[in-house]
Amino acid sequence: AAGVIQSPRHLIKEKRETATLKCYPIPRHDTVYWYQQGPGQDPQFLISFYEKMQSDKGSIPDRFSAQQFSDYHSELNMSSLELGDSALYFCASTGFLQGGPTSTDTQYFGPGTRLTVL
Amino acid sequence: DAKTTQPNSMESNEEEPVHLPCNHSTISGTDYIHWYRQLPSQGPEYVIHGLTSNVNNRMASLAIAEDRKSSTLILHRATLRDAAVYYCILAYGQNFVFGPGTRLSVLP
Asked: Taking a contact as any Cβ pair under 8 Å apart, which residues of chain A between 43 and 102 contact chain B?
């Protein structure tokens, strides 16, 4: 079965550079979530999209922005990178369920993008 | 946000059952209880979820207390591949709030 695809899998950037992470949800899934997991930490919710509209926002820095496109893939744009942005970035998707995301939705996670900021 | 409390770590012997507890005394009536697990450098993997009744699937069983203030994930026969961090998550709106989880070690 098709899974969530994230690219790139690894990314190395210098401080103050920009980075773009991409997420391709499971086919027919319309909701995408982004999570950040720092070294030795738990995943932290950043932002989510449902039907190409931002649906919820967590602890996402102002330097980060994201969007969901017409084919439901999503991109996380990160600017003015800092050392503390080094982390694993996970994308998760959920599918159609009675018109929108609910608490019952199972989130399917991608393999993550490991971002290293030097 | 709804909070969960889990043991930091647990150990099990291979092929023995494992009971992973989770306390969630502030759970609201509409919160679902989700369990995910994460292997090193991999994305969290869905294990099981439930609302009020006990649930079974091919991976595990979920036992939910009658007052819903606690739950237990049951792995019927632990294998080495079950060694992971297990997260108990109360669904809050759309996004998940991950706690520290329980690091399960499986001994051969």
From this structure: 43-45, 48, 50, 55-56, 58, 88, 90, 92, 101-102
